[in-house]
């Protein structure tokens, strides 16, 4: 009897160890959508004929800030219009940190309107011919309608969420063309704009909302959006070193200053600004989108200035979406590619839209598919699953660790603050691929269908 009990205990211990490897899967054909797999997995000595992904937690790289979305003004409007219970359930699903939710840990918001707000506004709009260089008429009144109420509900669910603010335009009275679209910042109003951004951070703090970082300007080389602003590298350098940096210092603002916030085809832009010794002392890092260029350009900026951080702040999915293609491209380039090239976060654009991809400004994006569609029901779109594969498991404070790229298996690995290892794997090919995961000499044999994504946690 005693011997039987000992055997049972040993078997129970074996099973407990076997269950330590958790797998969450999404198939390109949507037959499985971010579902935890039921099979029992464990590392052993079994060999496979396929390639091997070697994970080495002794080699460590950047610390992650999180994964998430842009909470546009339009997203906030749609979410805030939901019935109380429906809104509470949705926000819990998106932001709560537990087994049943996806745990978004990073949000970007617009400073004033973005092109996915229902109208253009800033926090210092004046009648024609008026100016306010001391920013005495600053007001967050427009955000009291939807954005602030939604952010406050999110912060109750996850008080530690990081928030990045990005302006699409300064107040039009500061601009060379007096228009929300295009134009440049007048040099005589550089100091006024610095005061405006200081007041933004201070007023948000009064609302109980801490802004972790701001970028200087969304897409500074794309003045054709509404709203938008052209801001050349030399202008951003001058603004940071002579106005914004000193203004933050004088007001004891701890919010990080992040430059650029545009496509990876112009790494020379952030590098040139960081080359200025006066500007760089105020700068935390650089932010990127990927509507042009290659994600590997982030590594070029890291090599030029390895003491400065990198961020990935925007990428859209065009409506109506192509699930298999969107899943593969975004996971490969953003969820895997951006961290492998030193990014501390990954943000998709945008969180929510209605079934017709509204709201947006006159001249704003008409085809931006939200991560969720808010209509008669809530529909979860490709970006929801793309981000969920990382946000749920790669918590803030996780550190990227070494893993090798092999054949068609794009991957990235992390060590979490709780001591877990997280490995994301994408099968880029169209056919099923058998492979092994190797950790400290032990192997785990796996197979993924073509275009499928899996997150492994142990």
TrEMBL record:
Signal peptide positions on this chain: 1-18
Family (UniProt): Belongs to the glycosyl hydrolase 30 family.
Glycosyl hydrolase family 30 TIM-barrel domain residues: 65-394
Keywords of this entry: Glycosidase, Hydrolase, Signal
Pfam families in the record: Glyco_hydro_30, Glyco_hydro_30C
Biological-process GO terms, alphabetical: glucosylceramide catabolic process
InterPro entries tied to this protein: GH (IPR017853), GH30_C (IPR033452), Glyco_hydro_30 (IPR001139), Glyco_hydro_30_TIM-barrel (IPR033453), Glyco_hydro_b (IPR013780)
This protein's name: Glucosylceramidase
Gene3D superfamilies listed in its UniProt record: Glycosidases (3.20.20.80), Golgi alpha-mannosidase II (2.60.40.1180)
SUPFAM superfamilies registered for this protein in UniProt: (Trans)glycosidases
Record carries keyword Signal: yes
Domain Glycosyl hydrolase family 30 beta sandwich, residue spans: 397-456
A single GO molecular function term of this UniProt record: glucosylceramidase activity
Organism: Emticicia agri
GO cellular component: membrane
Keyword Signal on entry: yes
């Amino acid at each position: 009897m005693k011997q039987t009990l000992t055997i049972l205990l040993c078997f129970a211990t074996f099973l407990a160890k076997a269950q330590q490897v958790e797998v969450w899967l999404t198939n390109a054909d949507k037959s499985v959508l971010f579902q935890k797999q039921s099979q029992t997995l464990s590392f052993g000595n079994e060999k496979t004929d396929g390639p091997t992904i070697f994970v080495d937690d002794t080699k460590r790289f950047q610390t992650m800030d999180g994964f998430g979305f842009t909470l546009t003004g339009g997203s906030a409007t749609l979410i805030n219009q939901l019935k109380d219970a429906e809104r509470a359930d949705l926000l819990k699903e998106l932001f709560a940190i537990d087994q049943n939710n996806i745990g978004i840990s990073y949000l970007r918001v617009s400073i004033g309107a973005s092109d996915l707000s229902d109208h253009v506004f800033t926090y210092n709009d004046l009648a024609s011919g008026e100016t306010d260089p001391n920013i005495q008429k600053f007001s967050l009144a427009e955000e009291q309608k939807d954005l602030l109420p939604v952010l406050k509900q999110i912060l109750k669910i996850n008080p530690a969420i990081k928030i990045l603010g990005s302006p699409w335009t300064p107040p039009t009275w500061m601009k060379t063309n007096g228009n929300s679209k295009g134009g440049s910042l007048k040099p005589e109003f550089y100091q006024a704009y610095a005061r405006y951004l200081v007041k933004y951070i201070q007023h948000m703090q009064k609302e109980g909302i801490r802004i972790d970082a701001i970028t200087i300007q969304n897409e500074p080389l794309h003045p054709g959006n509404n709203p938008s602003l052209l801001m050349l590298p030399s202008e951003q350098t001058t603004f940071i070193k002579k106005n914004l940096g000193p203004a933050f210092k004088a007001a004891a603002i701890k919010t990080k200053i992040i430059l650029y916030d545009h496509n990876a085809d112009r790494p020379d832009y952030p590098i040139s600004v960081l080359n200025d010794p006066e500007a760089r002392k105020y700068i935390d890092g650089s932010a990127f989108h990927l509507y042009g260029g290659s994600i590997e350009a982030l590594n070029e900026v890291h090599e030029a200035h390895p003491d400065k951080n990198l961020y990935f702040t925007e990428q859209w999915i065009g409506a109506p979406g192509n699930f298999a293609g969107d899943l593969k491209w975004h996971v490969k380039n953003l969820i895997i590619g951006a961290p492998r090239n030193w990014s501390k976060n990954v943000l998709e654009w945008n969180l929510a839209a209605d079934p017709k991809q509204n709201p947006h400004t006159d001249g704003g994006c008409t085809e931006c598919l939200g991560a969720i569609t808010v209509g008669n029901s809530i529909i979860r779109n490709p970006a929801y699953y793309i981000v969920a594969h990382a946000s749920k498991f790669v918590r803030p404070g996780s550190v990227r660790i070494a893993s090798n790229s092999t054949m068609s298996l794009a991957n990235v690995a992390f060590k979490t603050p709780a001591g877990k290892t997280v490995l994301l794997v994408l099968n880029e090919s169209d056919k099923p691929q058998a492979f092994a995961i190797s950790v400290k000499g032990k192997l785990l044999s796996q197979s993924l269908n073509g275009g499928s994504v899996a997150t492994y946690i142990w």
